[in-house]
Amino acid sequence: MFESLSERLESAFKQLKGEGRISEINVASTVKEIRRALVDADVNYKIAKDLTDKIREKALGEKVLTAISPGQLMVKITKDELAELMGGTEAELELKANPTVILIAGLQGSGKTTFSGKLANFLKTKKNKKPLLVAADIYRPAAIDQLKVLGEQIGVEVYSEPENKNAVQIAENAIKQAKANGNTVVIIDTAGRLAVDEVMMAEVANVKAAVKPNEILFVVDSMTGQDAVNTAKTFNDRLDFSGVVLTKLDGDTRGGAALTIRYTVDKPIKFVSMGEKLDTLDVFYPERMAQRILG
Ligand code: GDP
């Protein structure tokens, strides 16, 4: 489907065999190839340009070892740079508070409910927690049923108030119940709309203000490319979330959204979702994502 960056660079360097240092080869055309690969992988153009300018500086003067071709060396420098950009910050969940309150936000269809189930299952089976899942979507009764089905599958309690149209109250009542029942984590699955709108943003911001969550995870569909970045920015401006969950990475997207979101909002990607099965929760590995972006 995509020609890999390594392949492209190998052909760009073909006529330059035997050169000893990166400065002596045609860096300009290489940088253009890298930029193209990043843009193909859904990295925003300006960010791709900033990155390749940095990569060019790093590459100049690098010694080319005999064991590695200049093309391979450029790919390595690029990969390291991308991985560093996407990593760095501690991406563990903050689970000390009792109960720990985790707010899940994002657009409808992004994978919030599925991720909430995966997270609850992970915390129950791997972290010895007693989670309570909260259905705080007051617009779609089907969302409550969906969460109940997930809860049953993984043996986790689900809190809902189908008649209540006040998400803040539902969240507050859920936390009261969690305290009474000894739940150690409360995962609040909020309502999502198909596009960002003011009512939704105000609602989720009100829930945040009322329950003061320990973590706010922004869930975003990696298949949505550049739109994912705009959505991330809007949610972050309003919610100042603590981490990103990148879903549907089992699809054929190259995942440039991961890089662009990280660059734009500077929040760690804490988890990725790679399917609908509830028994796997995938942590985010910057090196793997860098490899995937470059192809
Ligand atoms: P929500 O509206 O944000 O709560 O989204 P859902 O959790 O209901 O997910 C929307 C659709 O995407 C459903 O059909 C899910 O089964 C599917 N889905 C969620 N996460 C993933 C994932 O990681 N990979 C794939 N392939 N599908 C997913």
From TrEMBL:
It is an enzyme of class 3 (hydrolase). The keyword NAD does not apply. It catalyses: GTP + H2O = GDP + phosphate + H(+). Residues 268-281 form the SRP54-type proteins GTP-binding domain. One of its GO terms (molecular function) is GTP binding. It is found in: Cytoplasm. GO terms for cellular component: signal recognition particle. GTP binds at residues 106-113, 189-193, 247-250. The keyword Cytoplasm applies. Signal peptide: none annotated. GO terms for biological process: SRP-dependent cotranslational protein targeting to membrane. It comes from the Bacteria. Keywords: Cytoplasm, GTP-binding, Hydrolase, Nucleotide-binding, Ribonucleoprotein, RNA-binding, Signal recognition particle. Its EC number is 3.6.5.4. Belongs to the GTP-binding SRP family. SRP54 subfamily. Part of the signal recognition particle protein translocation system, which is composed of SRP and FtsY. Composed of three domains: the N-terminal N domain, which is responsible for interactions with the ribosome, the central G domain, which binds GTP, and the C-terminal M domain, which binds the RNA and the signal sequence of the RNC. Involved in targeting and insertion of nascent membrane proteins into the cytoplasmic membrane. Binds to the hydrophobic signal sequence of the ribosome-nascent chain (RNC) as it emerges from the ribosomes. The SRP-RNC complex is then targeted to the cytoplasmic membrane where it interacts with the SRP receptor FtsY. This is Signal recognition particle protein. It comes from Chitinophaga parva. The gene is ffh. The chain holds residues 1 to 295 of 440 of the full protein.
